[in-house]
Design brief:
The complex is a heterodimer of chains A (about 130) and B (about 140).
Chain A: H1 2-30, E1 40-42, H2 44-53, E2 76-78, H3 93-126
Antiparallel strand pairs in A: 1-2
Chain B: H1 6-29, E1 34-35, E2 45-53, E3 63-72, E4 78-81, E5 93-96, H2 101-133
Antiparallel strand pairs in B: 1-5, 2-3, 4-5
Helix pairs in contact in B: 1-2
Classes of the chains: A mainly alpha (about 130), B alpha+beta (about 140).
Chain lengths: ~130, ~140
């Protein structure tokens, strides 16, 4: 089971993070006209490596230590606006649209990779 | 608020923009309204947008928007001397609305654009979800 899990995990974790980032970017786009709203984003690279390494959880060096939940909440960053608007809103629509489009495309790419892996597994199982 | 998925985020934002478009339509419809006192003159309406966050610990940074109130513009209505007007007061003055037509047009364009942006978000999310359903086939 773990072999299968390790085989699919890199793409599954990426897909999950992409989905989460898509929600954050959608929130930014939804709040494009809200005064004082600060645009948020996720640093995909660092969050991804954290998800894969299982970092963020505490090492248990003794049997009596309580087990910790791995991962923890995603670190949310604030976007630095190129030209801030006077109402305190830091959403710049073109930036958010660009990020959203990029994120969607990368989601699709990951989906493709994951599909290929599953197809590969299937054909290996069938022995065709 | 308990939970927000991407459809709720974009859907609520569209509702908020819809409220904004409605106020613009009301303002433009009343752009030529005349009144006999300053108090009863039509004043331009604007929605107040506020961020609505999802349950914080679960989905940090996920938020949508809602129009929490509609405020009236505080700008003074235009006082015009027109003694022949049927609505003119004792001194011959009428009071026109404080609606700025150019400002309303800009507001309308912006609301429509942002509505469209949210539709794009919905369309992208939907197509990606459908593709995810057929992964590995």
């Amino acid at each position: 089971m773990t072999v299968l899990e390790n085989y699919l995990k890199p793409h599954a974790a990426a897909l999950q993070l992409r989905q989460q980032r898509m929600e954050v970017l959608a929130s930014n786009i939804a709040n494009a006209a809200t005064p004082n709203y600060k645009a948020r984003d996720i640093d995909f690279a660092s969050e991804y490596s954290r998800a894969l390494s299982g970092m963020g959880s505490l090492a248990s060096t003794n049997k009596v230590h309580l087990t910790t939940v791995s991962g923890g909440p995603t670190e949310m960053l604030y976007r630095q606006p190129i030209s801030p608007s006077p109402d305190g809103n830091t959403v710049e629509l073109h930036v958010e649209q660009l990020q959203f489009a990029e994120n969607g495309t990368r989601y699709e790419a990951t989906l493709q990779f994951l599909g290929e892996r599953i197809r590969g597994l299937r054909s290996a199982l069938r022995g065709e | 608020m308990a939970e927000l998925n991407i459809f709720q985020i974009a859907g609520r934002a569209m509702s908020a923009q819809q409220v904004r478009l409605n106020t613009v339509a009301s303002n433009l419809a009343n752009a030529g309204s005349i009144s006999s006192t300053a108090d009863t003159a039509y004043r331009a309406m604007r929605p107040v947008f506020e961020t609505e966050y999802a349950a914080f610990n679960k989905n940090p940074g996920v938020a949508t928007v809602s129009a929490v109130a509609i405020e009236r513009s505080q700008a003074a209505p235009e006082k015009r001397y027109s003694p022949g007007h049927p609505l003119a007061d004792d001194q011959g003055y009428i009071f026109a609305t404080n609606v700025d037509t150019n400002e309303e047009m800009v507001e309308m364009m912006e609301a429509a654009r942002q509505y469209q942006n949210n539709i794009e978000v919905l369309a992208t999310a939907k197509s990606l979800m459908l593709k995810t359903l057929s992964v590995g086939k």
